[in-house]
Request: fold
Amino acid sequence: MVSAQAATSVRSFVAPDTVVGAIEQRHRLGDTAIYLSGGTDLGVVMRRHLVTPEHLIDLSRIDELRTLERVDGTIVIGSAVTHRTIELSGLFVGHAEALREACATVGSVQTRNVGTLGGNLCNASPAADTAPVLLALGAVVEIAGPDGRRLLPIDDFFVGYRRTALAPGEILTSIRIPVPDAPRGSAFLKLGRRKAMEISIASVTVRLDLASDGTIAAAGVGLGSVAATPVRSASAERVLTGSPPGPATWDAAAHAAVGDCSPIDDVRATQEYRAAMVPVLVARAAGIAFGRARSNA
Amino acid sequence: MTAPAPDTVGRSVGRLDGGAKVTGRYEYGVDASRPGMLWARLARSPHAHARILSVDTTAALAVPGVRVVLTGADTLGYLASRYVRDEPLLALDRVRYPGEPVAAVAADTQEAAEAACRLVRVEYEPLPVISSVEEALADDATVIHPDWASYWVSPIIRRPGGNVVSHASLRRGDTAALFESADHVFEDTFEVPMVHQASLEGRVAIAEVDDAGVVHVWSSHQYPFGLRQDISDILHIPLGKIRVTVTGVGGGFGGKLYAGAEPYCIILAQRTGRPVKLRYTREEEMIATSPRMGATVRLRTAVAADGTLLAREGWIDYDSGAYSESSPGVVSVGLLTLAGPYRWQALSIDTRAIYTNKAGCGSYRAPGAPQAVFAGESQLDRIARELGIDPLRLRLHNAVRDGDLGPTGQVLNNVSLVETLQAAADRIDWDSAGAGHLRGKGLSCTWWTTTGMPSSAYVRMDEDGTFVLITGATEIGTGAVTAGVAQICAGELGIDPADLKIVSADTGTTPYDFGAQGSRTLVQAGNAAIAAAEDLKSQMFDIAAAKLGCQAEELEMSDGEIRHTNDPELSLSVSDVARLGGTRGGLLGRGSYEQPPTPYDADSVQGAMIGAFNIPSFATHACEVSVDGATGEVTLDRYVVAQDVGRVVNPRYCEGQVTGGAVQGIGQAMFEEIIHRGGHVMNPNFTDYKLPTLSDVPHIETILVEVPSDSGPYGAKGVGEQAIIGPPAAIANAVRDATGHPIQRLPITAERVWQSLRGPGTAS
Ligand SMILES: Cc1cc2nc3c(=O)[nH]c(=O)nc-3n(C[C@H](O)[C@H](O)[C@H](O)COP(=O)(O)OP(=O)(O)OC[C@H]3O[C@@H](n4cnc5c(N)ncnc54)[C@H](O)[C@@H]3O)c2cc1C
Reply:
């Protein structure tokens, strides 16, 4: 006899207060357990029965995951820090404006009050707003698992469409953004069908570090919603690095970036439009990032 | 009824249901429940078009908690759709759209009902899918309703055959001759997609059958008396054995005018002997309930060199989806709105509704109009541009004025188009120098009806002198009943609206009303309430006159007192009257109102269920946009609506209606679109069906113009629907002004504007 499917598959809910405790629970409960942060992605897919976990391991009571601080030359963001906390924090001014901007566009205030940075990355949507920002900023993520902790450049974190480098049972614990001594500016631009509550058609982040001679010492370019994963545009970065700042450089970088994306058609936009918007957004974001870098000098 | 208005009218009185709504105590349909209630759910077709070979409910019935599973075989002869009875309650031999109900389940829990639906096994044989109007009209097109000739059809409707649901036409004057001799002829085609009402509360109902076999339905509905008739027609239950009680309504916008969830609840309640509740999910709402029809509009317009409009030929093919629902009425609205509020020497318009393999379409705030007006008003701007005439001047030159004839020959009175044009143009600074590169302004003009049909009311005076308004009208959130009609009724009784009690929208206790549709409630239910209050007052005056020893005609009532007009000392309080002999059980005033139909030239139209606009009213929309030349993004910088409301009864709610309508219209102009692939809805959720957010719309600057009508309360005209019509054309015209490129397809997305900027060849 077939039993009625309950409104939810969930049978138990645990809220450990340490990372080690969470990993132990995950080990004990097995593969039908899943980590829960703000639940703004998980709740949606569970409601549609696309994910049917039996046990929820809530990470939101773990203090370590909720800290946001600058430790020497690094901004360390606990994975359970909410978008709203980042949006309202002063820590990013002069170092990572783009992240603050990206977090400030996620959903609505209600979404940002509960949705977390770690959840955004682990959900690994190609449209996750913060992912290309962290790519452009050269972030490093810390991962904890049954065998201890490891550090991974974020470039290696997104391994495929909605897939991450997390092994079963691993927790993303923090996101670390290096803060250079050189003047830095970054900007995030998101194109969508509406101005809030929006999944991007394309998003672009440009980060520029200035050398003492005024040229661009280093650059990061991240692209969202234009490939199966959030991507970094190495070609655009190469064009920018070592070049004199200015519209000609922005345009060259913009054109280079197109080669690094492979957009698709969907209900939000055509492939053609996405491909055409990437250079527009790259050039604009570069201009804004440069302006910020100069004023951060 | 243009008697002097009482002092309750013209004030922003707070609505009587406001407190409960803002504190969360208001009971909507989703909140309602009955003891012992079961939950229903519908198993739906995954195919757009298929023959049903077999249905097996064994596995579904085996789910614990499942009480009954009904299929098409259990509902033979139960056909819905009010004007062409073409929609089986449960599909029998074929399904015609993805999401069509094939089985109905009642179970102890929602989860059991849902699980059972997944286990209803249906064997389908796919049929060719008609996914567009164009495909439906092809010579060799598969006929979606092979049994079409056997359906009951309401009179007037013209059905040529094939996949055409109905065809309406308008012929006046000699168009051929005028096209022959005109200086200019303009021809354009426009495309408008289906859009959804997207009420926050979807369809939801409960049905219970009592021991006497009386079916009691609680529903979030706009038109309880229509629903009662629908139920009677579909399920063959005598009207007298049906009672419909409207719950709180969390949005309707035309989507809750017909039977929806109710018949399923009833047949399941009849089988199980238990109350049954059915609530559609958001996805069900988006894939299987009656949205606004998409349309292809083709227009030819003959114009004199000085900009005088001479003649118009127009064709609208509305995509009705798989069932007729309200499309036979909508096609006739297309005739009137495609002509627009302008003077014509000749018109020749054909509008059709066409079957396709999508969910059947229904009514949505100003049904049929936005599609037509987007086309007509956009083309007007093209004409202005190409003739070198300012779009405002072109409209003023051709605008209808008092005494002119409407498109079907109705005599237009109390016409206010020029007033609204001037008010909107002034506010937007129309004549100020062009706003600059990639900035533009746009105008559009609309006209719309105030639907007639009967409304009735009682006003009761209770034993202590309390007044109760008993009206069949339905409050669907506009404030028309709980503010407007209440203000009118209280004003006539000389009391504070806050002291009036209201009982409404229950076929078991309230008198007939034609429902919350067609912008009619405040006007028609208001007139009925005035009549009922008058009747009650005359009964009270007779009693008071006998007591005071004067004539009833010499009395007046205000502030809870009945006084002699010339001798205020001679008075009685209302509560005294309530205690007098002959009134000790209270008193009951009765009022009914039905406006005589508006005369028009009946020979000018064929197949039109609506031949004229009753108490027409007029509006002008004006907006200012800026366009991002690289991305195509359009920002609405300013939005102005000047709308004639005849007489403002409640300024706050009147502005609320105009603002809300404009915002929904902006949604249709720039954001909303039900995206289909092979009949399937690709965006059945609020992630991908883009409703505008607060950040996307500017403050709507409303100007309420007052050109009183002859028959609305104190001159009021209908307000609710009109403001949704104007935005697509106003915005398209502003974008064209900004970029020089026309946009002939909705919604006006950044991508479409970007496409248009890339050159005339790719403009769409
Ligand atoms: C209305 C709405 C609007 C939205 N708008 C946007 C938007 O504009 N832009 C955008 O990018 N996103 C948007 N989202 C998606 C979502 O809000 C974000 O992705 C959010 O950051 C997810 O975080 P969360 O804490 O809610 O994750 P959860 O839903 O709790 O988790 C998401 C996934 O990550 C896993 N996970 C979470 N934390 C960890 C961890 N520390 N270690 C390992 N695995 C973990 C979970 O198991 C789950 O699989 C929106 C969502 C909603 C509901």
